[in-house]
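INFO  loader      accepted 1 record
INFO  loader      residues=119
INFO  predictor   begin
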Amino acid sequence: MGIFDQRIQEVCVIGRELVTISWTEQDLDEEKVFKLSGLLLTNDTALVICDGNVEFHIVEQKADGEFLPIRCCDPIFHIGEEDAKYLQVLDDLSKLSVVEFAKKYPHPEYLEQINHEQQ
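INFO  predictor   done
INFO  writer      dumping C-alpha cells
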C-alpha cells in the first residue's frame, strides 16, 4: 500500500527527463511504498508536484534507476491539484522566471485576501 503517482507514465517534457522518486515507510506492521514523478534538473535535484505544491527535492539515483529523496524542502509554490495542467506547470517552471511563475500561479489564499480587501 502507499501512494502511486499516475503521472509516472509520462517520459519527457520540454526536453527534460521526468523521473520516478520512490521511498518506503514502515507504518506499524505495514510497509508503505510511495512513488512520485519529478522533473530532474541536475543529477541530484528535482522538482516534484505533490498535493498541489511544487517542491524542490535533493535526490540520489538508486540501482533500479529510480531516485530516493534525500531531502525534501518546504513547498515553494501552490499550483492546485489539477492533473490536466501538470505538464504545463512543469513546462512553465523551466521557461518562466520565478516572478512570472508566481504571477501565473498565485496561491489561493493570496487571491482570497485580495478579493476580501477589494470588497
